[in-house]
Amino acid sequence: MEIKEFLQHLVNGISLGSLYALLAIGYTLVYGILRLINFAHGDIFMISTYAGFYLMSSAILPWWIAFLLAIILTCILGILVEKAAYRPLRDAPRISLLISSIGMSYLIENLAIVFFGGRPKTFPIPAIFDRIITIGSVKIPTLSFIIPVITIIILAILLHIVHNTKTGMAMRAVSTDYEAARLMAIDVNKIITFTFAVGSTLAAVGGIMWGMKYPSLIPLMGVMPGIKCFIAAVVGGIGNIRGAVLGGFILGLGEIMLVAFMPALSGYRDAFAFILLIFILLAKPTGLMGKNLAEKV
Amino acid sequence: MAILKTENITMKFGGITAVSDFTMELEKNKIIGLIGPNGAGKTTAFNVITGVYKPTSGHIFYNKENITGIKPHNITKLGIARTFQNIRLFKELSVLENVLIANHLRLKSNPFSAVVNTPNYVRQEKHMIEKSLALLEEVDLIDVKDEKSFSLPYGYQRRLEIARALATEPKVLLLDEPAAGMNPQESNQLMEFIIKIRDKFDLSIFMIEHHMQVVMGVCEKIYVLDHGITIAQGTPHEIQNNPRVIEAYLGVE
Amino acid sequence: MKKKKIILSLIAIILFFSLLFILNSVFNSHQTRILRLCGIYVVLALSLNLINGFTGQFSLGTAGFMAIGAYTSAILTMPPAQKASAYYLEPIVPWLADIEMSFLPALIIAGLISALIGFIVAAPVLRLRDDYLAIATLGFSEIIRVVITNLQNITNGSLGLKGLPNYTNVWWSWGVAVVCIIFMALLINSSYGRALKAIREDEIAAEAMGINLFRNKLFAFTVSSFMAGVGGALLGHLMGTIDPLMFRFTLTYNILLIVVVGGIGSITGSVISGVIVTVAMEALRIVDGNIDLGFMVIKGIPGMRMVIFSILLMVIILFFRRGIMGTNEFSWKWILESKLFKKRKEVA
Ligand SMILES: Nc1ncnc2c1ncn2[C@@H]1O[C@H](COP(=O)(O)OP(=O)(O)O)[C@@H](O)[C@H]1O
Ligand SMILES: [Mg+2]
Fold this sequence. Notes:
The complex is a heterotrimer.
Chain A: H1 3-34, H2 41-57, H3 63-86, H4 94-116, E1 121-122, E2 132-135, E3 138-141, H5 143-164, H6 166-176, H7 178-183, H8 188-213, E4 216-217, H9 223-236, H10 241-261, H11 269-283
Antiparallel strand pairs in A: 1-4, 2-3
Helix pairs in contact in A: 1-5, 1-6, 1-8, 1-9, 1-10, 2-3, 2-4, 2-8, 2-9, 3-8, 5-6, 5-8, 6-8, 9-10, 9-11, 10-11
Chain B: E1 2-13, E2 16-27, E3 31-35, H1 42-49, E4 57-62, E5 65-66, H2 72-78, E6 80-82, H3 95-103, H4 111-115, H5 119-138, H6 154-167, E7 172-176, H7 184-201, E8 204-208, H8 212-218, E9 221-226, E10 229-234, H9 236-240, H10 243-250
Parallel strand pairs in B: 3-8, 3-9, 6-7, 7-8
Antiparallel strand pairs in B: 1-2, 1-4, 4-5, 9-10
Helix pairs in contact in B: 3-5, 3-6, 5-6, 7-8
Chain C: H1 2-26, H2 29-54, H3 62-77, H4 80-86, H5 94-97, H6 103-125, H7 130-150, H8 152-155, E1 161-162, H9 170-188, H10 191-201, H11 203-208, H12 213-239, E2 241-242, H13 249-262, H14 267-283, H15 285-288, E3 291-292, E4 297-298, H16 304-319, H17 332-337, H18 339-347
Antiparallel strand pairs in C: 1-2, 3-4
Helix pairs in contact in C: 2-9, 2-12, 2-13, 2-14, 3-6, 3-7, 3-12, 6-12, 10-12, 13-14, 13-16
The structure holds adenosine-5'-diphosphate and magnesium ion.
Adenosine-5'-diphosphate sits at the interface of chains B and A.
């Protein structure tokens, strides 16, 4: 393989990894607090791309207002999902919560099929994102630069919030010990709402960038990235934001490189994540950056 | 002869050392105690002995056999049974089923014989039921045998935990705070009950208990843990008069 | 009492098959198709309930194991000439090209291969709990689909297989369902069934009672895979056409819906709900198409049916968590001791 080709794959892998990272953070935050896989997270991501699509297609709004609105709508959806499907089950067995999350995911998917139709839609890309830079003989779309940069900026903001603000510290407290946090008069419900808002916002930012990079939208488009990003979060160490980012990059780069170096296996691209999951869970069940915690008896 | 023995067991969780260098010996047919303030590492010691956690270092011997690192179900099979401090019954199942489940480990059959009801299986199942009913009779739970276990009053649940442990046919019984939540009168009854089962089932008993009255009443030897460290061991009398114990444990009560 | 129960059960089974015979002769082909589907979904619901409801291991792999069963049975029963024409992109591997067997052995082999793969998959994934297990099994189910799509010279890839022999009549579908019901009832009430339930209730306590967690979970998972494989095979021979897209995870969700509606951990619930949900799914097909009321036509909305079902799943889990039966079961004792019966005895 030529160096030029390799560079192209590398850039591709990094931007896919960034998108995975954004989505994985949502899983890791929610799991950290509720010990729940939010199965609907991938579908919330899907909704953001459709929201972007419809707002852009209306062709009245400038692109950045359309994107901003799409992100806000998605954020609200995330909060509503938590209120409707998870809050009433706070004291229920975990399995009920899990089923509720599967049900919510299924509901959003089916609603999307009804309202958006099963036929693929093409995401309209604003002209300023649709350029190609040529460095030497390597051609790289601007998007491939923009995606990682935006991801890094968002990540910096998020880490700042989590480590330096009161809300962020409360989040970490709830995630470390739910009961103790409740006793310390932290409004756990408020923190959970906030967590879903943050997770959904990141998913929406990722979703819109995803729409520009892979412009074909279908109602089930959130499922595979969703599952993969949960895996990314587990690989990095569930509950750990930096871990989720690391996991996202490993997965994104791994997938792209697998296809690049072993084209014969390209059909098995979607299997890569699951095999990685099994290996990680067998070798280091707490993930690469997770803490080692045995269940208390 | 010691039926159960630990040699310098240490258990670390990340940065915390829950138990450090714990060495104990349980003689056959004796009842001994383990005391210490909350968070001292008592339950952790039980968890290590029963294989729930593999110790960071140290060894556990049962009848001279090294059982360190053996899986919990195999340890139970060897003859060490336990109860849990925070009651872990099979909640949705009946009292009788709870005890029957504890008989399962002695069943010599396979699922397919069970499904087609081979005579061998039917005979063993019948034996299990008879044995369980007799045991429930023994612990005075026969009247509630068909109740779901979570619906029992607290004291009954504690007794069912013990009955369930007995059903595994143990030689050594580990009791984790069996008198928790009981009033003095109930604790006294429990004391008699523990001595009774020891004699009837030929047991050696190692118990964690907070009620000094119970520990002092039935235990011949007591170990005292504080912050994972064994600060004293000896007869109830010796322990009662040990200044370190008074400071660490009795003092705070 | 025990003899009496066996006799009552036998009578019930005979009555049930007589009823099937009558229904089978009065129903039109569309209706018998639904009847056959019901039997299949009962099998599938029992499969999922065994691992999720009785053993408490949240697995979402059913669709994958169904795919294995359906493909195995399809390849084993399709006539060689038909295979030769179906595999036009790449011919089928020689060792499978000339096989043609009857339905029963094909069905059993379908179950066995599915069970074997379940057994192999189980070893790594059963170390996981709850959500992790759910994701890992869902993942495996999707991997199975990816593999099937890529094994062009064995499965015909994404083209799928058409014209499977139409074996799944009412007798096959319900015959298998009744065998599964009886098997499950006997298993669950045996000491091994109690061990599974103990694991569901509290793994740590079960282990402390001497129950080998891994071996019991492995057993439940393997049997569940067997049943899913057989169910998948039955479904294939009812549809007549199979392709990898048919076995997406959403199929597992539908079966999960049946289990949840019936009651997680109830055989009776799975049977009742398997029938109700299947009939409802078919009946509600009308909301997907136009409804002609004579004087006006209500425009159908494609996909609305599944929206209704996902709402149903949410409503059940949020407000009626125990479903129809909870963990309760139908029993003769309960019938015989019910008030209605007692009164009659007094009169007599
Ligand atoms: N699985 C575990 N992970 C981390 N820490 C644990 C675990 N189990 C026990 N500990 C810690 O070990 C210490 C001893 O706990 P425990 O043995 O339950 O005390 P005791 O039974 O004497 O009250 C406590 O600080 C507890 O938090
Ligand atoms: Mg304790």
